Structure formats: C-alpha cells, structure tokens
C-alpha cells in the first residue's frame, strides 16, 4: 500500500520533516539567548570557540551564516563536546558533521552532557546506537539536557505502559518535546487514546500492541491536545461511520489520525461526493478502502480527478478502486502509457493494475509482459505441424 507515504508527504508539507520539527521545538531556550544578544548589540565573537572549531575542521563560516549567534556565547565547551563524541566511538568527520548541524551543542556543559549520556544509555545501552541517534537528532540529545528530571520521569512512564526500550528511544530522538513536558500531560493524552480504543470496541488484551503501533508511527501524536483526537472521531461518527468502522479507521490511520482536521475532512468528502456523484454509503466505503482520502486537500484531489477523467477513467472505476487517488497525476499517466504499450487498456479493465509502490507496479508490469511474450499453453489447441 502506498497511502502511508502519501499521508506522510502531506504532513511534511505542512509541518516539515521530523528533524525540522524537532529542531524548532527545542530551540526556545537558545532563541531567547539570541534575542538577548541582538538587543544588547553585542558583536564580538568568542575567539576561543572559533579557534577550537577551526582546529576540528568545522566549517565556521557555515555556522556564521546559519547560527552565528552561537559564536557569541560564553562559556563554550567545544573540546568537551568533541571528547564526549570521540569517547562514544565517533570518527572526526562525524564529530565535525554534528557540530556543523547543531553548533548549539557546544553550549551544553560537560556535567549536563554526562547526565544526558547516562540517561540515554538507560534505554539505548550501546554507544554505537546512541551515536547514530545523535548524528540524526543532535538537538534531542544536547538541547533537552535542561529538562533532565522530566525526561527521567517520562521514560519511567512510557516503560510503565510496557513500551519497549527501542520505541522509547525512538520517541526521545524524534519527539523530545514529549519528554521535556510534564508526565501529567502525557498521561492525559495516553488516557484519551486508550479510552477511545476501548469505547470503539477494542479489546484490552490488544491495547499494548495497538498503542505501540500508534505512538511509533507518529510520535507527535503525544504533542496534540486530547481534544484533537476526540473532535476527529466525533466528526467521522457524524458522517455515518459505525463504531466498528471507526475502530478500523483509527487502527489503520494509527498516529496520523491526530493530523486530521474536521473542516478539511468536510471539504474533501463533500468535494469527492459532488465530483463522483456517489452516495454516502459509497463515500464511506471509499474512505475505508482508502483512508488517505481524508488527508488529501481539495486542490490536489481536483488535479487527480481531472487527470483520471482525461485518461478516460470513469467515476465508477474510481469509486470501485479509490486507492488510485493516492498516486500523483504524473505517476498515473506514466503507468497508463506503460500498460497501454502491452495492450492493457485501463478504461476497459481494473484500475488495480495502476496501484501500489513503484516496486509493486514493476512486478505487476513484468508479469503482464511475460504473459504477452509467453502466452499460456492451451492443451486443446492443435500443435503446429500436425495435419
């Protein structure tokens, strides 16, 4: 299925990549320092920091352009930060890359660095694994150090939910804000998720695995107000979805259900029904078969409908195979032409031939090509040469 990727792309267009979201959320303290610096009119760089970074072959000019305010801070811990990473097994190119990606790391004192390392190793014991996370999410390790007590308490809370260390580690790396906030805030969100699952007919015995999948797929769901999930489920219920269907949607959408919005869903569903001339029952079936439809903005949806209609696809075909709407118009047209070159006319056949990832389509296309080059043996047909 391709719809999770489509949803992810839609989400990223709105809020950015995970790395961008993480960096934006944990920069508050340092941004306030930068504001104070600008207001005070200070201009002199910390030469100790500049020289130390140069010694490590760090691109100081790049830091000046992107985060020059860091070079004005004092005290700084360039050598100590490099030593920490080196002690964890980092090669010099990795150390350089981390400092260029997140120069704010040099503002974290050795004491806080040691405390963070000890905390993270409680759930990610291997230095090589922890180093890999720091390479990708340095802000999660260095900038969250001022919330050590909350981090420890939230680690205990998530482990009390029987989430394994791998999932908790992922949460801390990708969504460090969830660990910087109070335990009470996370408890409220998790309680709401569990309550929704049970009220929709979910079994308590499956709660653990369901919650693990939900949080691991979209850790940022913990940062959403509990009302967001409630409002989305109430809206879908008002559209006629049964309790069982709501649980199916919640389980299928997992963490992405928190990214939905009643107003946008209403516009998308209304436009789809008007364009296709389908009934409410048919529309609900489309959503159940293609949950990504709920995420698709009307502008994008209009483009994809028009592309399919121009290709000769009927409304009935789209209602029958709504997953084709997960594909961009460019991809659909490319696949239609490739299928046409081997005698497959989507206007007369099923749209299922268009579905899937690039790999899925290539496999289907190869099978179609093979059938054309090597037709099935017909035991009834006379063998050539026999007269």
How would you portray this structure in words?
This protein folds into three domains: 14-181, no CATH class; 183-260, no CATH class; 272-373, no CATH class. The longest helix is centred in the middle third of the chain and has 17 residues, at 183-199. The chain is mainly alpha-helical and 387 residues long. It is globular and about 70 Å long. The chain has helices spanning 3-15, 18-25, 28-40, 47-55, 60-67, 78-87, 92-101, 110-121, 127-136, 138-142, 148-160, 165-174, 177-180, 183-199, 207-217, 226-238, 243-253, 262-276, 280-289, 298-310, 315-320, 329-340, 358-373. α18 (262-276) packs parallel to α20 (298-310). Helices cover 64% and strands 0% of the residues.
Summarize the structure.
With 387 residues, the chain is mostly helical. It is built from 23 helices and no strands.
Give descriptors for this structure.
single chain, 387 residues, mainly alpha, 23 helices, 64% helix, globular
Provide a count of the helices. 23
Oligomer: single chain
Count of distinct structural domains? 3
What is the general shape?
globular
Q: Cα distance, first to last residue?
A: 51 Å
Task: Give the secondary structure arrangement, pairings included.
Layout: H1 3-15, H2 18-25, H3 28-40, H4 47-55, H5 60-67, H6 78-87, H7 92-101, H8 110-121, H9 127-136, H10 138-142, H11 148-160, H12 165-174, H13 177-180, H14 183-199, H15 207-217, H16 226-238, H17 243-253, H18 262-276, H19 280-289, H20 298-310, H21 315-320, H22 329-340, H23 358-373
Helix pairs in contact: 18-20
């Amino acid at each position: 299925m391709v719809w999770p990727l489509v949803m992810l792309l839609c989400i990223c267009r709105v809020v950015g990549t995970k790395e961008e979201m993480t960096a934006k959320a944990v920069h508050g303290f340092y941004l306030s320092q930068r504001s104070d610096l600008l207001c005070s009119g200070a201009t002199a760089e910390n030469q100790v920091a500049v020289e130390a970074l140069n010694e490590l072959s760090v691109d100081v000019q790049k830091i000046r352009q992107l985060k020059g305010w860091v070079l004005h801070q004092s005290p700084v811990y360039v050598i100590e930060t490099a030593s920490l990473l080196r002690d964890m097994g980092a090669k010099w190119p990795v150390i350089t890359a981390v400092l260029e990606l997140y120069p704010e790391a040099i503002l974290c004192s050795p004491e806080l660095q040691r405390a963070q390392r000890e905390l993270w190793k409680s759930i990610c014991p291997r230095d090589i694994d922890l180093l890999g996370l720091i390479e990708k999410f340095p802000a999660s390790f260095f900038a969250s150090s001022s919330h050590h007590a909350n981090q420890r308490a939230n680690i205990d809370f998530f482990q009390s939910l029987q989430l394994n260390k791998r999932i908790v580690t992922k949460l801390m790396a990708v969504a460090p804000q969830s660990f910087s906030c109070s335990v009470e805030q996370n408890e409220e969100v998790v309680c709401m998720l569990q309550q929704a699952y049970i009220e929709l007919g979910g079994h308590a015995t499956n709660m653990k695995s369901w919650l693990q999948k939900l949080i691991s797929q979209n850790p940022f769901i913990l940062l959403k107000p509990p009302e967001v999930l409630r409002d989305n489920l109430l809206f879908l219920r008002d559209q006629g979805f049964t309790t069982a269907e709501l649980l199916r949607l919640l389980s299928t959408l997992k963490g992405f259900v928190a990214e939905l919005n009643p107003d946008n869903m209403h516009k998308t569903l209304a436009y789809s029904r008007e364009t296709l001339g389908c009934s409410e029952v048919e529309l609900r079936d489309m959503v159940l078969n293609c949950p990504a439809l709920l995420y698709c903005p009307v502008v994008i949806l209009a483009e994809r409908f028009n592309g399919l209609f121009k290709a000769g696809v009927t409304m009935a075909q789209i209602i029958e195979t709504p997953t084709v709407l997960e594909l961009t118009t460019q991809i659909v047209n490319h696949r239609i032409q490739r299928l046409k070159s081997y005698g497959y006319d989507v206007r007369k056949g099923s749209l299922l031939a268009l579905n899937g990832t690039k790999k899925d389509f290539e496999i289907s296309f190869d099978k179609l090509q093979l059938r054309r080059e090597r037709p099935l043996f017909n035991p009834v047909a006379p063998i050539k040469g026999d007269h």
